[in-house]
Amino acid sequence: MALPVFYARPELVGSTLNVVPAPASWDTAGSLGQVRSAAFTADVLAAIAPTMAVVPDPLALRLDIGLPDTVPLLLHNDLDNYLFTLVPTLTKGTLRQFASVWATKQHAATSSVAVCQTRPTPDPGGMYSLQVHTTASATTTTYKRQIHDQISTAPPLPDGGIALQLAFVIGPRRAWPNLWKATIDSLGPILGRDPGAREWDTRDDRITNLGLHCTTDPSVGNQVTIAIRACTTDTHTAP
Predict the structure, then answer these.
(1) Which CATH number is 128-232's, of 3.30.360.10, 3.30.70.20, 3.30.160.270, 3.30.1330.20?
(2) Average per-residue pLDDT in the chain?
(3) Rounded CA gap, 130 and 116, in Å?
(4) Which CATH architecture has domain 15-117?
(5) What CA–CA distance (Å, rounded) separates 162 from 45?
(6) In this model, does residue 92 exceed pLDDT 50?
(7) Dihedral, 7, 9, 11, 14 alpha carbons, nearest 10
(8) Which domain of life is it from (predicted)?
(9) Residue 235 — pLDDT band, cuts 50, 70, 90?
(10) Where are the domains of the chain?
(11) Largest separation between any pair of C-alpha atoms in the chain
(12) Residue 139 phi, psi (nearest 5)
């Protein structure tokens, strides 16, 4: 079985986006949320298409989201929600797969996106260095429960921002973007949960730096292996 692989984050200067980033919308077709999400995706695609046409594999994507100073950095604006529909649409529009996807959020006047060839990099480690295995469909509660139960003894990270990397090993029939949100929703023992929150409603809005990586192994079937690396950052709630 292949081992999880971590890839280097793109460090080049990205293209400034002309459209304000918008998270995935589950509203009805034609709603304002859907329109904003589609415009954001189209802007990203236009920015990276020339590079995607010539850069060799393996590919990494980096999205840096700038938020106004008046917007709390660790409340809402979950990074995985910006990537959830964006990456599959980019893959469909360019016919290229990403081995690594990164997103950050910070107080800034602009947002940007970059694509480049990446390379494997040493295991980043962190305050938490965990590995879990799943067999269920990511659309089921069983998938989340399998992950949660394997990390249930880990106490939540201290208050403040979080840097999180997830390295997946999947079979060729898995669409790995479909695993992101369900996996992060399962990390309550690490990310924490607000009092009275629903079981899978984690404090994932604390994540200010997110790295996602994928290795495909035809021998694993339906099993998914996920290496979890998490640590706090110096980002706090105060403006």
Answers:
(1) 3.30.1330.20
(2) 94
(3) 28
(4) 2-Layer Sandwich (3.30)
(5) 28
(6) yes
(7) 120
(8) Bacteria
(9) low
(10) 15-117, 128-232
(11) 50
(12) -85, -5
